[in-house]
Design brief:
By secondary structure, the chain is α/β, with parallel strands linked by helices. It contains seven helices and eight strands. The chain has a single domain, classed as 3-Layer(aba) Sandwich (Rossmann fold), CATH 3.40.50. The strands form two sheets. Strands 2-4-1-7-8 form a five-stranded parallel β-sheet, with helices on both faces. Strands 3-5-6 form a three-stranded mixed β-sheet, covered by helices on one side.
């Protein structure tokens, strides 16, 4: 029986971790971070300033980590549709990764690049230009829609904390439980 999952994405600093932890508490499903799983599978991999050397290799490591460390049949995965390479190039996570993950629901979190920039600066002491964040978020949005259409997986796009909160309130009422029954 294949595993069931909710894939939560958004660029760095959008609020994925906070949102994911709240959803974990509501649905009583285990939450996994893609980057934590990757580091657990291969501790030699480092992501200085949120930059990835080899995106495809990284995703292969992620898939292996899920196989090795995720024993539950239903879970939440916090990850990305796009990543940043060392040369600041925005790169799409290979479609094959999502084909193998085959999530039952994908949630994309979006927000104002100014707010995202402020969060990243405070949290990571790393500076990203607003234009770069805007471009990365737009690429993430277009690519998530492409994946959703290609794999026929529902995609929910939530823009801003008020939309995040409304979605979580609907989750409390059981709106997304159909995915897991």
């Amino acid at each position: 029986m294949p595993k069931k999952s909710i894939f939560i994405s958004g660029i760095h600093g959008v609020g994925k971790t906070t949102f994911s932890k709240q959803l974990e508490n509501i649905l009583h499903l285990p939450l996994y971070s893609a980057s934590t799983l990757i580091k657990r599978q291969n501790s030699a991999l480092e992501f200085p300033e949120k930059k990835i050397q080899d995106v495809a290799k990284n995703q292969d490591v992620l898939l292996q980590a899920i196989e090795n460390f995720v024993s539950e049949e239903k879970f939440i995965l916090d990850g990305h549709f796009t990543l940043q390479k060392e040369n600041c190039e925005i790169v799409k996570v290979p479609l094959s990764t999502f084909e193998q993950l085959s999530p039952d629901l994908m949630i994309l979190l979006l927000d104002d690049p100014v707010k995202i920039q402020q969060r990243i600066n405070i949290r990571n002491d790393v500076f990203f230009e607003q234009e770069f964040l805007r471009n990365m978020q737009e690429t993430e949005l277009r690519y998530s829609q492409e994946i959703s259409n290609h794999l026929n997986i529902p995609l929910v796009c939530l823009n801003g904390f008020s939309a995040f909160e409304l979605f979580l309130k609907s989750a409390i009422k059981g709106v997304i439980e159909d995915v897991y029954n």
